Amino acid sequence: MKNYKICFLASPGGHLAQLYSVKDIAKRKNRFFVTMPTKDSYTTLHSESVIFFKLRLSDTNFLLNQLNRFLSLYLIFFQSLKIIKERKFDFLITTGANVGIILCFVSWLCGKKIIFIESYASVTRFGKLLNLISHRTFVQWDSHQTFHSKSKLISPLYTNSTYENYEYNFGKEYFYVSVGSTEYQFNRLLKCMEKIRKSFNIPVIGQIGNSDYIPDFLHRRTFSKKAHMTLINNCKFFITHGGSSNLWDSQEMGVNTIIFPRLAKYGEHIDDHQLFLTKMFGDKSPAKVAHSYKDIVSSLKEDFLEKSDKDIYENPISQIRKELGLEQ
Fold first, then answer.
1. In 197-283, beta strands by DSSP E
2. Domain boundaries, position 233
3. Fewest CB within 10 A of the end CB: N or C in the chain?
4. In the predicted model, is pLDDT for residue 165 greater than 90?
5. Is residue 165 part of a domain?
6. Burial class (CB in 10 A: 0-12, 13-18, 19+), 281
């Protein structure tokens, strides 16, 4: 059987976490990743072959981020041509999103096969566009098939995630809040957690991402993956934005979770896609949903039900390889 070479393309955060979990579709020598340069992507892909887009983002300035992205499009176009010429890959597999659309379209024009896997979080504008040119489109929720013609339903990519022993005795109870790695601020949640710390008289540890509000509790912009998972596993309550990676990890680790989704009207994300995943997890798991300080307080005072039995899924790697004719 031919050793197909595969380009894995994803933006940092949940998109990359999903794609990384099925990296073994190809052997290490036959795969490489393309993404944007962030601490999250450096940490996740430290042992992989990686090409970083020539894109530089400001830490907290949204307008500067958009200007930098616009000015980078020209460079990324020519970088895409160089990647195609030098790497000579057969398939491009992507979960989206962002400026990666340029490499997708240039690859398609050069005759490469585009494999698109719609985000676990929601149907994206990136996905609706890419579905028009993809060789195969996969979705992780049956409801997403309505939006993507001829798509194939597969198990959630996160199904293939593995977990270490993250037990650690911190010596005291604490709440852990995490807002993810997107370039958008989430000041609203951080301000709520300041009030929570004072109301409940319990320490709060925060991963504040690119928020420009600096809270009065212990925080870091990002934690290493292991530190992040350890903080989730041992906290009294985990308060998180509606990001797919955080929600899946908290469910699998069985921690008391409160989901506080980002909203576009407050400049917390480009759209309200987190509402979809928040509803799905709120319906199928013991997690609570909050949209305000009062909601968080109410959720903290409620009893959390026992974690439900895990769903049984087929391995998504096998499903994808079978559809692409890559099974040995």
1. 204-207, 218-220, 237-240, 257-259
2. 175-301
3. C
4. no
5. no
6. buried
Joined tokens for residue 257? 């979770």
Task: Give the CATH number for residue 191.
Answer: 3.40.50.2000
> Is the separation of the CB atoms in 52 and 35 below 8 Å?
yes
Within a domain: 306 = no
What is the rounded distance in angstroms from the CA atom of residue 86 to the CA atom of residue 125? Answer: 30
Q: Do residues 88 and 191 both lie within one domain?
A: no
Cβ within 8 Å of residue 290, ≥6 positions away: 239, 258, 259, 260, 296, 298, 299
Helix, coil or strand: residue 241: coil
pLDDT in tens, 39-66: 889 888 999 999 999 765 555 566 776 7
Could you tell me if 200 and 257 lie in one domain? Answer: yes
With pLDDT > 70 as the criterion, what percentage of the chain qualifies?
A: 93
Specify whether 128 is located in the same domain as 182: no
